[in-house]
């Protein structure tokens, strides 16, 4: 990254050296837990970006690279890499007329993940709103002393975010967007809206491979890792499977309630 550049905060942990999905997940869980310890409610929305790599606006990307003060030769290399690409469709052993690709980055290419991080990294940022990006998995969190005071700033932020998304030609799958309120109550709170569409509150969501429930006690996630019908000779076969299936949650270093630990059958618990 060029020194003294206009490059903004690095909030995207996906495809980033020394940062991983686990780090981003830990960051989110710690933020929610810190809120709980301070008697704050946390409202979180999990966005789904439609065809993330296929829809990167090339002209917009070049504009951002210039704003980030990248060297001209790097900008020209990336521009050459992304422009003048064509595709054809094979139908019954016949190729269609070549068509020019107007957007997107080559999936599977070594530069594709880096380009996507650069494209997303100037996402709208405001005070008291936490943004969590891991590749195209996006979580936005707001906290407040009451649920209302957590929801209102989140909704206000989403209005600003919508304008940013439109400007940079990024589309959301609204039907795959989820919201959850991390608190102890089950009251009927006002629905958060995305592009005018109300989003139903969820009791649990899955983020980066781990199920987060509104109490953040990991009961729902624990239920996914139970292994049944295990005989007395299964230790060598079972341990790697358990380790693999709970690895992401285990790495969070968050101690779940005793009730959750006890919910794992004792024969399985002893292998963890």
TrEMBL record:
PROSITE patterns: RT_POL (PS50878). CDD domains: RT_nLTR_like. SUPFAM superfamilies: DNA/RNA polymerases (SSF56672). Coiled coil: none annotated. One of its GO terms (molecular function) is RNA-directed DNA polymerase activity. Keywords: Nucleotidyltransferase, RNA-directed DNA polymerase, Transferase. Residues 1-212 form the Reverse transcriptase domain. The keyword Cytoplasm does not apply. Pfam families: RVT_1 (PF00078). The keyword DNA damage does not apply. This is Putative RNA-directed DNA polymerase from transposon BS. It comes from Araneus ventricosus. The lineage of its organism: Eukaryota, Metazoa, Ecdysozoa, Arthropoda, Chelicerata.
